[in-house]
Amino acid sequence: MDTTIFINIVYVAAAALFIYGLKLLGHPSTARKGNLLSASAMLIAIIVTLLDQNIISYGWILVSVLAGSAVGVYVSKKVEMTGMPELVSLFNGVGGLASASVAIAAMLNAQLSTGFAVISVVALIIGAVTFSGSLIAWGKLSERISGKPIVFKQQAFANYSLIAATVLASALYVMYPSSTMLMIVVVLLALSIGVMAVLPIGGADMPVVISLLNSYSGLAACAAGFALENNLLIVAGALVGASGIILTNIMCKAMNRSLVNVLTSGFQEVLSNDIVVEGEIKPISAEDAFYVLEAAQSILVIPGYGMAVAQAQHAMKELQELFEKNDTETVYGIHPVAGRMPGHMNVLLAEADVSYDLLLEMDEVNARMEQFDVAIVIGANDVVNPAARELKGSPIYGMPVINADLAKNVFVIKRSMSSGFAGVDNPLFFKDNTRMVFGDAKEVLNNIVRQFSD
Amino acid sequence: MIAIYLLFILMLSIFVGFELIQKVPATLHTPLMSGANAISGITILGAIVLAGGESGTAASVLGVIGVFFATINVVGGYLVTDRMLAMFKKK
Questions:
Q1: How far apart, in whole angstroms, are the C-alpha atoms of residue A195 and residue A197?
Q2: What is the CATH number of the domain that holds A385?
Q3: What pLDDT is recorded for position B70?
């Protein structure tokens, strides 16, 4: 049989395995098997590709596969669960870089048809933007770069000019595909677009950015698939692209903002927030909080990014076990944008050995909020801000939030009285049924744990 | 004509992708992203052919670079996803 046909038949099987693997990812009990199927699809696709008759030497392929595997194994073993947003960001960037280098390598091929030149340039641009954008996102997430939006005068104008220049340079390149100079210009411009696009985005909007870059890394592979006329690259790239777009959409909805608004909010006028929330803050000590928690029948825990920062998930799990021993029902309510990436809180709690059926989505806990005796808010702010529901004119008005204030009692564990990313005061802190427990989340929770054992 | 045929594949894959991924529960969104990272390393197939091909030294060097980075994506992505999914337990 012709090798090309054989390779493509195996690609069809690999595509089927990728799709079935994603289907199994639809439930936590089958997800691990799904990931394994997807990995085996990748493995057979790689092995069969090595049979390609255009390949004349295997030495360097072997070296780079071994080196890449070593890095991959090391990174995946070493990373801590709190570092997942940074890692996913880096992986997005690496994927973009791989696609960009494949696109350039394909473009160096002398006989370029116009159609081929166009699609290769598209693959190159998406790959380069994904790469530089992801590096900036990684820098922001790991706080190597300020997490605040970085803005300067005329930024919008600079960005539009950059895009226009990229389109122009790409068009010139398509006309003169033998010009390496033009290609380098396109690469540099695309890299700058990635940097400029992510710089003005603040840390709390990172879930959207990571999802979007995740989608781009797939689209880059997809475009490279068109350039190389490789079916499997198109199928796999499209699956990743679709996944990223769905997540981006979920994140935007959870913040009640459009994608354009998230991407441009950095250089929009800062919303003047005249609404001053006034009221009395009622602090409570961990000791007094313990008495209320001990008497409670049902407790809802609402984690936020602060829980990740304080590494308080293990202390929380310990406390959850004590609650359960005390016959108190304990569940977790998780907002889609709690944390720095989609599903961030769920992974941290899973790491702390919390059963996944206790991790409930926003709508589920809101439906029965009045029945909870205590809602414990750990390091979350905007996602439980009732201003989103009741204060017209507030910058976050209309955002779907977890209605913690409707629970019988609310304990907010918080370092100090600063406002959330939107710079909005949180009326929750002033409600009659709210008590503030000031301090480091981990210490506060450990303190309550000690009260239980005394 | 081949471009049209590739577009067909793209269109169908996008629909399949949307249908499947909409069913992934929010609790698995982080493993979904890292798993997607691994899948996007599929570029390795293109990189392998270019790295081992005879279209010139520059193309081969870029191909080798592509293989290296795509392998990081594939190996790292699948392993870290597996590590995470192993933690999701029901008690």
A1: 6
A2: 3.40.50.1220
A3: 97
